Amino acid sequence: MMVLQRVSQPTTLEDRAKFIWLWVKGNSARNIAKETGTSVTTVYRWIRRWRERGVVENRPRSGRPRITSTEEDLAILKTAFTWRHISSINIKRRLNLTCSPSYVEFKNVIY
């Protein structure tokens, strides 16, 4: 017997605000879940986060900071397409970038 799993989707800010609004109006988490087509666990999670932090927005995410700006990324691409046989070292030098040549090559391959 094959068990199908639900595909989880992020809860939208609009849905989260609706959970809180309905809860403040006196609805139970179970009724909110039934009305919005969401699990009771999800409703409780956002009510708890709202009570702890006072907001229903996403928390800032951690991660490595960008090495190059969007403008620099576009300049890398433009240079690579204009000068088809230019090396990543020469792109780095031409654009006066502080990143490594391997990063320039990586950016060029991604796009």
TrEMBL record:
Record field: transmembrane: none
SUPFAM superfamilies given in the database record: Homeodomain-like
Coiled coil: none
Subcellular location: Nucleus
Any one cellular-component term (Gene Ontology): nucleus
Xref: Pfam families: HTH_29
Name assigned to this protein: Transposase
Native organism: Petrolisthes manimaculis
